[in-house]
Specification:
The protein is α+β, with helices and mostly antiparallel strands. Helix content is 25%, strand content 28%. The chain has two domains: 155 residues, D-amino Acid Aminotransferase, Chain A, domain 1 (2-Layer Sandwich), CATH 3.30.470; 171 residues, Alpha-Beta Barrel (D-amino Acid Aminotransferase, Chain A, domain 2). Bound molecules: pyridoxal-5'-phosphate (PLP). Its cofactor is pyridoxal 5'-phosphate.
Length: 362
Amino acid sequence: MSLDFALQPSSHPASEADRAAALAAPAFGRYFTDHMASAVWTPGEGWHGARVGALEPFSLHPSAAVLHYAQEIFEGLKAYRHADGSVWLFRPEANARRFQRSAARLALPVLDEADFLASVEALVRADEAWVPVPTTEESLYLRPFMFAAEAFLGVRPAERCVYSVIASPAGPYFASGVAGVTLWISSTYTRAAPGGTGDAKCGGNYAASLAAQLEAREHGCDQVLYLDRTGGEGRLEESGTMNLCLVTSSGELLTPGLGTILEGVTRDTVLTLAGKFGLTPVERPVTVEELRAGAADGTITEVFAAGTAAVVTPIVALKSPEHSFTIGDGQPGKQTLALREHLLDIQFGRVPDTHGWMRRVL
Ligand SMILES: Cc1ncc(COP(=O)(O)O)c(C=O)c1O
C-alpha cells in the first residue's frame, strides 16, 4: 500500500517578509522551507508514520548508527515554476530509481518509486510559496534522504531508518556560474574504486571528498576532478558534485562510462540532447593525458560539468601538480552554453517537453 504524506501544517511558518527576503537572494542551501516530509522504517512495520509536518530537528540517541557508520543516502532534484505559475519536477522518477540503487548498496530499506514521488510532491504542495518565480535559474531544491536511526553500536544494517525530504530555494550553485569554473586534478585523493560506493549517492562519499575540496581551494580551483588511478594512466571520473563532459572537434559529446561514477540525471539528459546540437554521444574512458593533449592541439574544444545543482557549468581551466591548462581560449564554449540554455528552457517550460521529462505538481 502506498504511503500517505498528509499535511500537518506548521504552526510557526516563516513570515511573508522573511520568506520574501530568502527568495530575493536564495544562494544555495542557505534557507529552508516551513515543512519536511518524513516516514520511518522498521523490519516489523515496514514504512510507516508518513507525513508532511513542520520542519524540525531530529532527536537522535548518541549511538544512532548513522553517526558512527555513515549508513546514509540522499538525492537532489528541483521544482521549477513556469511562466503560467505552474510548478514542475524534472525527471523525478530517475531520482527515485537512483535512491533505490543507493539504498540497496548501503543496506538501507528500499522506498517504492511511488512513495518517493508522493513525498516530494506533497512537500512541494505544502511549501508552494517557496518555489521561486525565476529571474534567471532560481528553483526549489529538494533533498530526499534516508539514514540509520537505530540506537546501537556494532556494524550491521540498522533496524530503524528514517526517510525525509527537506526543501531549500536555490539560485546559481557557483558564484562564477556561466563564466566558468576551474578544476583541480588531485593526485593525492581518489573518489571511488571498483566495488566501492562511487555509484551510490551516500554521505560518506562526500565526507571523503572534503579534504580534496580543501586542496582544490588551496590551488585556487573551484572543484576537484577525480581520476580513476587503477591501471596507472589516470582516467577521468567526475567532479565533486557533477559529471564531466567533453566536446571534441570531430563533433563528439564525450563522457566517461558508468561504473564508479554517479549516474547523473543531467549527464543522461545531455547525452540524449546531444544530437540536437549536432553532437554524437560517446561514453568511453578518457585519460587525463588525452584531455591535456586535446586541449593543447584543439581536438578537445569544450569541457563542461553536468549536475542538478549546477545545471551545465563550463570548465574553462584545469590544474594539477604537473600541469595548468585552459580549454579553448579559456571562455565558456558555444555548445556548452547552447546545451545549458536548452536544458533550462525545458525545465522552465519555455520549449516543448518532447521527451516527457517534466512532471507537473501544481
Ligand atoms: C558526485 C556527483 N556526480 C554527479 C552528480 C550529478 O548528478 P545529477 O545530474 O543527477 O544531479 C552529482 C549530483 O547529484 C554528484 O553528487
